[in-house]
Design a protein that fits this description.
The protein is an alpha/beta fold. The chain is built from 3 helices and 6 strands.
Amino acid sequence: MSDAFLARCREITGAGFVLEGAAMAPYLTDWRGRYCGAARCIVQPASTAEVAAVVAACAGAGAAVVPQGGNTSLCGGATPDGEGGAVIVCLARLNRIVAVDTKNDTISV
């Protein structure tokens, strides 16, 4: 992936929310230690608009996207393969309650 791609991701999320190198380690192995992979970078969007922009940037760069929520990866789906070309889109910053509907027992987060 090019420096232009990484620069675009930093424009979208802010420079502190695109991780490379040793900072990626906690995101490359599931919490049980059963699955381990490699990635080009970790991008941490804070809104659905940022997620959409990051996914569009990945599509434009031809990068595989691995969405990651809590990184439990009980089935290995949130851990990238070992090639190192994927981008992990970490959704941990999307953590706000938008609405609670007590009448219908639903919550939007």
